[in-house]
Amino acid sequence: MDELMSKTAAHPVPLRNDTLADLPEGILRPRYERARLTAGIVHIGVGNFHRAHQAWYLHRLMQAGKALDWAIVGAGVRPYDAAMREKLIAQDCLTTLIELAPDHTGAEVTGSMIDYLPIEEGNAPLIHVMADPRIRVVALTVTEGGYYIDATTGAFDTGHPDIVHDAAHPDAPRTAFGAMVAALRQRRAAGHKPFSGLCCDNLRGNGDILRATVVGLARMSDPGLADWIDREGAFPNSMVDSIVPATTANTLEAVRAFGIDDAAPVAHENFRQWVIEDAFCDGRPDWDEVGATFTSDVHSYEMMKIRILNAGHQILANAGELLSVPTIADCMAHPGIAAMFRKVQTEEILPYVDAVPGTTPDDYLALIEGRFSNPKIHDTTRRVAFDGSSRHTGFLLPILRDALAAGGSVDGFALVEALWARMCAGQREDGSVIEPNDPYWARLTEAAAAAKDRPRAWLEQPGIYGGLKDAPAFAEAFERWLATIWRDGTAAALAAYTAR
């Protein structure tokens, strides 16, 4: 660290509206007058990804003097959201983004979010703001598993306790979707238009899924309201992409090195993509002017991204956890894991991915390999392996089913699923404990323990595998690979697979 960096790190500037002019030279910051901003978007789930991605696109528009009436109001519905709210409110909802490119590191302060609502039981503050007709978009990043979709049927789960509660207490809901329904009820009663619901989670057809959840919940208590939402509302599909690791002590140290005292900085790679169906019911910002893509064919883009990037993350993470490889970049530098990754991708994923304008599946895989290999992105295997019960079912198993239907190879998929089963046994090969890392961890560890002696026990989880346990090409290969991993170890299994 040079003399200037040492000086700024020793005396960082507290991040607030009234200190923006005091930030060190070279730090990008809002050029717009934040006091002039008015809200047009509520975003539920203000995690790192949202602040590095959707909020950044809006910030860029504001830097050009546009979309000043589309500022973001942050929100959450779970008690743990309160900690993030406290940090951001203390710094006027400003965020420092630290870009980690392979050849440089930069910092930018963004200001497109202007408030963060209190987290309260019953969600009254959230409902009140979403009922305001000035809010024209309600966006969400609440994780892939947060949409109350039955894993077996793919339909909206009307029997989930949270959903049953919200249907019975529509004015004091506990879920984000219950709050959306309550706000839409008020808007309808007042003669206002509905807002557009914009899902920003990694789900195929995410707008369709959000529609099914919101309309389905409304129908349980007010069928007329459900019909109105379905007819007058809008739920555009979208695809989002950027690698955004969790904030760590290293992130906090890095932001101080830039001379900024930020309690909630966000690190991110030097790549973003946002593809959106242009189907809003009450306007939207011109995100395409700052790099987003509006299209009627989001499906092709999301298919490429989910199958190559998101499924690829799961291919790497379980092997990395078992071998105590700490980050995704380290996995790409591990000869055995990297070779397995490329073989599964080229033989069992790329055949089921179509090209999109300007990009072939092979070109996209090369892009992903470069992004995953960025040594500055300390994206932990633990973070990527989180919630495998949603991510395997959402990202990997649909491709497996396509491969089975086409009579293609599934040997690599069988190995990947066997690695996940072995990881869920809860212990790495060096003997260290894998702490619970899935909402259904107890259930998974029980199945993993049974599968050590009888591998097919893992496949007998109907909410995950359904009828796949009866597909001989997959089930027999899975049994072979899980037995190999337990007997010979993960590295030996990887070597045996890549030598085939």
CATH class of the largest domain: Alpha Beta
Q: What share of the residues does DSSP label as strand, in percent?
A: 5-15%
Helix count equals 22
Strand order of the largest sheet: 6-3-2-7-8
CATH superfamily of the largest domain: NAD(P)-binding Rossmann-like Domain
Strand pairing plus helix content: what structural class?
A: alpha/beta
Coarse shape: globular
What CATH architecture label of the largest domain applies? 3-Layer(aba) Sandwich
Rg from alpha-carbon coordinates: 23 Å
Give the strand tally.
13
Give the proportion of residues in helices.
Answer: 40-55%
Quaternary arrangement of the chains shown?
single chain
Task: Provide the CATH topology of the largest domain.
Answer: Rossmann fold
From the N-terminal CA to the C-terminal CA, the straight-line distance is 48 Å
User: What is the count of structural domains?
Assistant: 2
- Major β-sheet, in short? 5 strands, parallel
Which runs of at least 5 residues are low in confidence (pLDDT < 50)? none
The pLDDT mean sits at: 95
InterPro entries: 6-PGluconate_DH-like_C_sf, 6PGD_dom2, Mannitol_DH, Mannitol_DH/Oxidoreductase, Mannitol_DH_C, Mannitol_DH_N, NAD(P)-bd_dom_sf
Domain Mannitol dehydrogenase C-terminal: 297-486
Keywords: Oxidoreductase
Pfam family, one: Mannitol_dh_C
